[in-house]
Amino acid sequence: MEKQTMANREINMHEEMRRAFALLSGKWKLEIMWLLNQRIYRFGELRKAIPGITQHMLTAQLRELEADGLVSRTVFAEVPLRVEYEITEKARGLGPTMEALTAWWTKYGRSVPAKPGARGRKPKGS
């Protein structure tokens, strides 16, 4: 594995990348981040935009992303209560990665076999 030395401290890049992957691992996190990279969403909008995700799972994934400093949650003292989610400046640093993945998919996506069945629960009305 590649190791780098910074100020007399050896860094194992494999371990560091494992930590980075862990931030975005999870069934829905990348999809949530991709959507929030586009614009600010309310909870219900996110749920509708991600077919098959449950309310419980969306809540759990958003909480983890917020705890890791990748998503911010703003609560507006209104009736009814309004909550908005957006990516943080730290998460905006992933923008080039998202753009690279989009470019890769545009070029190679048609060559990837479609998998049968959607993930998670079926949306209502299906």
Describe the structure.
Residues 15-113 form the HTH hxlR-type domain. GO terms for molecular function: DNA binding. This is Transcriptional regulator. Keywords: DNA-binding, Transcription, Transcription regulation. The chain is α+β, with helices and mostly antiparallel strands. The chain has a domain at 25-105: Orthogonal Bundle (Arc Repressor Mutant, subunit A), CATH 1.10.10. It is 48% helix and 17% strand. The chain is built from 6 helices and 5 strands; from the N terminus they run ββααβααββαα. The chain has helices at 13-24, 29-38, 43-49, 55-67, 89-92, 95-108, and strands at residues 3-6, 9-12, 41-42, 71-76, 82-87. The strands form 2 sheets. Strands 3-5-4 form a 3-stranded antiparallel beta sheet. Strands 1-2 form a two-stranded antiparallel sheet. β1 (3-6) and β2 form a beta hairpin. The radius of gyration is 18 Å and the shape is globular.
